[in-house]
Structures are given as structure tokens and as C-alpha cells.
From TrEMBL:
Family: In the N-terminal section; belongs to the leguminous lectin family. In the C-terminal section; belongs to the protein kinase superfamily. Ser/Thr protein kinase family.
Organism: Ilex paraguariensis (yerba mate)
Compartment(s) of residence: Membrane
Gene3D superfamilies membership: 2.60.120.200, Phosphorylase Kinase, domain 1 (3.30.200.20), Transferase(Phosphotransferase) domain 1 (1.10.510.10)
Name of this chain's protein: Protein kinase domain-containing protein
Length: 668
């Protein structure tokens, strides 16, 4: 489902693209058709093996390409005892045809090098033909050469024929520790021959060339083995030559490869070169059918494409129902990706309540799966009047911001009156779930509270991102709705600020972009002056941050400013650490905790001019400066507030003039 939507995503920008697509598809069909013809007769050659060749092979554990060779059972230096491994050429080989009753002929020539690592050496390597790919029997190390194991030995279900190059006499049936053998579904060789009489020592570490030659007409197998550097014609007569009907033991299509093993005794088992040639046992009529079987579905797919593109064009008209929305979003410099409603419906199981992650003021958040990536999809409620402005605010603000403590916005969708935003998925949910619930289930399943260390990291993360929003980016951004449920936690429990529905951009020192004067935010987090000024300021964000600090440290909900009064009271009695969350069981660094609590109180100062800037707050948290001094009695809220000049102490030393005089922000 997702797949088709992706390819058709590429086809809609211009009419001409359709034609290009179709031509591509026809070409592809022809290519596929002709590759079918080639697939039947398999030929390949590797004078050596490089990392680039890795894609041509399928390997099991322990087998890989390294030092220009296939290492079937790892390299020396690794722990190489008691290993087995297999490697195959990725494409199947048509060995025989039941219908036509013919068998292919083939030559498999390879250079092997077996380098002993122990004395005596062991165990050996085999050229294999198997029905399956990517599978090796368990416990096939040691004497089993990766061919079978004690339970599959002798079973016709093994579907394996192996030409073994055995370097250990591990069974009484083995003639010696340097022989070739032919094994059918078993480790027992139906034919074997010692190499000592032929001037070949397998585990000499030198290059040895072997050729497995099969004649499909005569149904005979011949095996040649000689030292690669040998001169003369010692390679003219086979070491083993025997009748063998492979079609009796193997499936019509087989995979070709190598297996090897080590035991208590070890050696490096490697293949340095491999050449394979085979005869063609094709049936042209059969191929024609294959060809049609490919072309017809492709024609159908093309038709389907036309249909989808036509549908999309009709949809397109619907999307543009409110050009203002699209325009405002496009206006923002790096607008995130636009998604299709269908894609998002598909990703969330049609907004299945089972996939619901949470419910917010302006909509519901669902978990979804887009191209195998977990995402969170926020669906704005249709009846909320705030929906559209919040939606636009969110895309145009966070879509343009990049900070590791921000939730990433991947994209958006506005279709059929549905407003949707797609975010990075946060596996640990929102902070409030962790700090306000006494029995939150940790990933490991054990009931646990967030440790102080994690809480401190979260606090620092929030401070960092707020400092970035207030002072670090080109246009100052006010979040306006900082609270525990808007702080998300990623897989490492790092804080990620989310929900920019209420956020507003302000050009530093300049005019504002948006100028709604609605008082927004969440009760308990709103600074007392908000109701008088009637708009958000940098200081109101700092206030909400202060409340958040106290919540995180105390593990309590803010209530209507009661948490501030309570902590301030404890501070006055010089018992501020009593405010710490009891669930921490005293497991926190006292000095750090006191800093955080004092900073929380300083940020919640009733007089906005007395609150530190986010820059200062961050410096307090990183230990660069001490927390601002706070009066032992919570000052009463006064409006209009005293301006900084009436308090030399704070205005000069602490904030360094960073407090924003309200007048520079001319409304929102
Ligand atoms: C493996 O199976 C063969 C029969 O195919 C049998 O002759 C041989 O003894 C078995 N070997 C072991 C070690 O079980
Ligand atoms: C390998 O297996 C053999 C037999 O099971 C065992 O005796 C030996 O200790 C193993 N060697 C290593 C290094 O694991
Ligand atoms: C295999 O090699 C032999 C000897 O070089 C040759 O006669 C035969 O045609 C080859 N067969 C294939 C299928 O390549």
C-alpha cells in the first residue's frame, strides 16, 4: 500500500512525467523479459572478491568478504574455533527440468586457500549445491563442515550435495586428513580420494585450484584438484570421476556456494577466485509465457497509474479549497513536506482509536507508520475555531527551527478540511506521564520514577531550547504554552519541546508577524501579569519555565500558583529541599537540587522584570553562575510592575540587561 503511494508520489507534478514513467516501465518490462532469458543459464567469474561484490552473495554468520577473498569461517585473529559458515551466489541456477527431462552441465572452478591455525589442522571446506539459501544447520561446526549436523545427517530433506575438501580425519570412514569427497545429504562420502598421492596438500596455505565438472547429458561428475602454481599437465586427469544423477537429490533450481567449518582445530578457509559456466536448458515456448506473465501485469500497472493520476488531479482541486492556508505555509522558507491524506490514513489505520497517543487542546495525536518509520500524527479537531491559525503557526514556526531539544516536524497535510501534522515519534511519551503518575511503567516493565539525574538533564534540555527560541534564532519565538505535557521524551529521555500550536514569531526588535491579542496558555503556568498585558512576552515564557522546574523537582502539579507559594514558604524556613519529590527517596545531589528550586522561584517572581532571562537560567543550570538572589518572602504582585532601574542589583549584575522591556515587543 505504502509502496504504491510512494511511486505515484513521484508522478504528479507534470503531465509529461506520466509519459516518461510509461516509457520507463516499458523499458523495464523489456529488460525483465530479457533477463529471464539470461537467468536460466548462469555464468559468472570473480578473479578475486572485493567489498563491492558483497551484493552478489548471501552469507550466513561468520562468512564474509575480506582481503580480496571469501572468508567462509572468519579470519585468523577472530575467535575462529567451533565455527561453521556458508556463502552463496545470490541468483539460482536451473540445474534440471522435470518437464523436459534434461539436466544442465556446468563447470565450477575455484581457487581455495586453507591456512592452518592449529596443529593438527581442521576441519575443511566444501563446494555446495543447495535448495535453500541463507540457511545453515545449527551445530554444523567441527566434523560437519557446515554441510549437515548430527540430526540432519543422512536425511533426504537436507537437499544438499557437497564436494568436500576435508582436512581432518574426523570419522572412521574418512581416509585421511587431506582428501576430497562427494557427499549427498550426509557427511558420509559416497566417493573419496586422498590428495597425498597427487602432490596436493590442502592446508598448505598455498593456492589450490579445484574444478567440479558436471556433465548433464552423461550424468557424470569429475573433480580436478591441483596446486595453482604447479606446472605440467597434472591437472589433466580427474581425482574423482563417477556417475551421479544430481536431479535425483536436488530441486530444479539450486543455489551454488561454499560451506566450511572449524572445530577445536582450526584453519582459515578462504576462496580467492571463482568461475562458473553452465549450459542453457531453456524452453523458448516456456519463456514466451514467462515474458507475457511479466508484460501483462505491467500493462495493468500502467493502467492503474493512469487511474491514480487521474484521481489525484481530481483530489488536487479539493486540496486547494483554502489557498490561503497553502500559501501561508509555502511562504515560510523551509516548509516541511506535504503529505497526502490517504497516506496518513493508511499510516494510522484510518485514525484507529487503538493508535491514539494522546489528546490535546486542539486535536488528537495518533501513532503511525510511514515507510516503516514510526511517526506521530496530530489531527486537528474540525470544529475548533483555533484549528487553522494554530496549524499554520505550528508549521511555520517549528518547521523552520532546528534544535536537538525540539520535536521534529516531518510534514503536514491539509485536505478535505482535515488539518494534520506529522512529527517524529517520541517513544517515551510526554513528561507529565512520568512525573505525575506514581506507578508509571518503565520500558523494562518495572515501576519506576524518573531519576533526579534524568530530570536534571530534561530541565537543562528545556532551558537550552528555550534560550534558542528566545535568543538563538533569527526570529524570536515565544512558545506560550510551556508545560509538562508539551515536553516529550525521546528514546534516551532527552527533553523535546513540542506543541507549537500557540507559538508566535517575533522579529527581534521589529514588528510582529501575528497580532492576535487573545490571552492563551494553560492556567497554573500563566504569569500573573498576562491578564494585565493581554499578551505573551519573553518573561511569561520564563514564568512557565519556572513553574515547570518546580513541578519536575517536586513531582506535583502546579495548581493555581500553589506550588510556588508552597516552595517559597519552605525556602523562607530554609527547608527548601523538603520540596523535592518524595519518590526520589532523597536520591539527588543536594546542591544541584537547591539551585534548580531557587531558579524555579526566581523565574516565578511576580515582577516580570525580576525574572532571569533564559540565557541566565541556562547558565545557572550549567553551574556557570549562581542562582539569582530571591527575597525570603514572596513579593506581592503589583501592576504596573517596578521597572528594572528601580532595582539596581538585579538589573545590573544578574540579567546583564537581557530582560526584554515589554515595549520592544509590540503585541503578538
Ligand atoms: C551420516 O549418515 C550416513 C548415511 O547417509 C551414515 O552412513 C553415517 O554413519 C552418518 N554419520 C554420522 C557421524 O552419523
Ligand atoms: C569446541 O568444541 C569442543 C567440542 O564440543 C570443545 O571441547 C572445545 O572446548 C570447544 N572449543 C572452544 C574454543 O570453544
Ligand atoms: C567444462 O569444461 C570442459 C573442459 O574444459 C569443457 O569441455 C566443457 O564444455 C565445459 N562445460 C561447460 C558447461 O562450460
Amino acid at each position: 500500500m505504502i509502496m504504491t503511494q510512494h511511486c505515484f508520489g513521484a508522478c504528479y507534478s507534470s503531465k509529461c512525467l506520466y509519459c516518461v514513467q510509461i516509457v520507463h516501465l516499458l523499458l523495464l518490462a523489456t529488460l525483465l523479459g530479457s533477463s529471464v532469458i539470461q537467468v536460466e543459464c548462469l555464468n559468472f567469474g570473480y578473479p578475486n572478491f572485493t567489498k563491492q561484490n558483497e551484493v552478489d552473495f548471501i552469507t550466513t554468520e561468520n562468512a564474509y568478504i575480506s582481503f580480496n577473498a571469501i572468508q567462509v569461517t572468519s579470519l585468523a585473529g577472530d575467535l575462529i574455533s567451533n565455527l561453521s559458515g556458508r556463502i552463496w551466489y545470490r541468483h539460482p541456477f536451473k540445474l534440471w527440468s522435470r518437464r523436459k527431462n534434461i539436466t544442465a552441465s556446468f563447470n565450477s572452478t575455484f581457487v581455495l586457500s586453507l591456512i592452518p591455525q592449529t596443529h593438527p589442522w581442521g576441519e575443511g571446506l566444501a563446494f555446495i549445491l543447495t535448495k535453500e539459501i541463507g540457511y545453515i544447520p545449527e551445530n554444523s561446526q567441527g566434523q560437519w563442515l557446515g554441510v549437515v549436523n548430527s540430526s540432519t545427517n543422512g536425511s533426504t530433506q537436507s537437499n544438499v550435495v557437497a564436494i568436500e575438501f576435508d582436512t581432518r580425519k574426523s570419522f572412521s570412514e574418512d581416509i585421511d586428513d587431506n582428501h576430497v569427497g562427494v557427499d549427498v545429504n550426509s557427511i558420509y562420502s559416497i566417493e573419496q580420494a586422498s590428495l597425498y598421492g597427487h602432490g596436493v596438500i590442502l592446508p598448505s596455505g598455498q593456492d589450490i585450484t579445484a574444478r567440479v565438472q558436471y556433465d548433464g547429458e552423461l550424468k557424470t561428475l569429475a573433480i580436478f584438484v591441483f596446486m595453482s602454481n604447479a606446472t605440467g599437465n597434472n591437472n589433466s586427469s580427474p581425482i574423482i570421476s563417477m556417475p551421479l544423477d544430481l536431479s535425483k537429490y536436488l530441486s530444479e533450481y539450486v543455489y551454488l556456494g561454499f560451506s566450511a567449518s572449524t572445530g577445536q582445530y582450526t584453519e582459515v578457509n578462504c576462496i580467492k577466485a571463482w568461475n562458473f559456466t553452465s549450459t542453457d536448458i531453456d524452453d523458448p515456448v516456456h519463456l514466451l509465457w514467462m515474458y507475457l506473465a511479466i508484460v501483462i501485469p505491467i500493462a495493468l500497472i500502467i493502467g492503474f497509474f493512469f487511474f491514480l493520476c487521474w484521481r489525484r488531479k481530481t483530489n488536487e482541486k479539493q486540496i486547494q479549497e483554502d489557498p490561503m492556508v497553502v500559501l501561508q505555509i509555502k511562504d515560510s522558507a523551509t516548509a516541511p513536506q506535504k503529505f497526502r491524506l490517504k497516506e496518513l490514513k493508511c499510516a494510522t489505520g484510518n485514525f484507529d482509536p487503538k493508535n491514539m497517543l494522546g489528546k490535546g487542546g486542539c486535536g488528537i495525536v495518533y501513532k503511525g507508520l510511514l515507510s516503516n518509520k514510526e511517526v506521530a500524527v496530530k489531527r486537528f479537531s474540525k470544529d475548533s475555531s483555533q484549528g487553522k491559525p494554530d496549524f499554520i503557526a505550528e508549521i511555520t514556526t517549528i518547521g523552520n527551527l532546528h534544535h536537538k531539544n525540539l520535536v521534529k516536524l516531518f510534514g503536514w497535510c491539509y485536505e478535505s478540511n482535515e488539518l494534520l501534522l506529522v512529527y517524529e515519534f517520541m517513544p517515551n511519551g510526554s513528561l507529565d506521564k512520568h512525573i505525575f503518575s506514581s506507578n508509571f511503567q518503565d520500558k523494562g516493565g518495572s515501576s519506576s520514577t524518573l531519576s533526579w539525574e534524568r530530570r536534571h538533564t530534561i530541565i537543562c534540555g528545556v532551558a537550552r531550547v528555550l534560550d534558542y527560541l528566545h535568543n538563538g534564532c533569527e526570529k524570536r519565538v515565544l512558545h506560550r504554552d510551556i508545560k509538562a505535557s508539551n515536553i516529550m521524551l525521546d528514546s534516551d529521555f532527552n527533553a523535546r519541546l513540542g506543541d507549537f500550536g500557540l507559538a508566535r514569531t517575533i522579529r527581534v526588535g521589529g514588528e510582529t508577524h501575528h497580532s492576535t491579542k487573545v490571552i492563551a496558555g494553560t492556567p497554573g503556568y500563566m504569569a500573573p501579569e498576562s491578564f494585565h498585558v493581554g499578551r505573551a512576552t519573553v518573561e511569561t515564557d520564563v514564568y512557565a519555565f519556572g513553574v515547570l522546574l518546580l513541578e519536575i523537582a517536586c513531582g506535583r502539579k502546579p495548581g493555581n500558583h500553589r506550588i510556588i507559594d508552597w516552595v517559597w514558604e519552605l525556602y523562607k524556613m530554609e527547608k527548601i529541599t523538603k520540596a523535592m519529590d518524595v519518590r526520589l527517596k532523597g536520591d539527588f545531589e543536594e546542591e544541584q537540587a537547591v539551585y534548580v528550586l531557587k531558579l524555579g522561584l526566581a523565574c516565578c517572581h511576580p515582577n516580570p522584570y525580576q525574572r532571569p532571562s533564559m540565557r541566565i537560567a541556562l547558565q545557572v543550570l550549567t553551574g556557570e553562575v549562581a542562582p539569582p538572589p530571591i527575597p525570603s518572602e514572596k513579593p506581592a504582585f503589583m501592576w504596573p510592575a517596578n521597572t528594572p532601574s528601580s532595582n539596581e542589583h538585579l538589573g545590573n549584575t544578574l540579567t546583564g540587561g537581557q530582560l526584554t522591556p515589554i515595549t520592544t515587543l509590540s503585541g503578538r
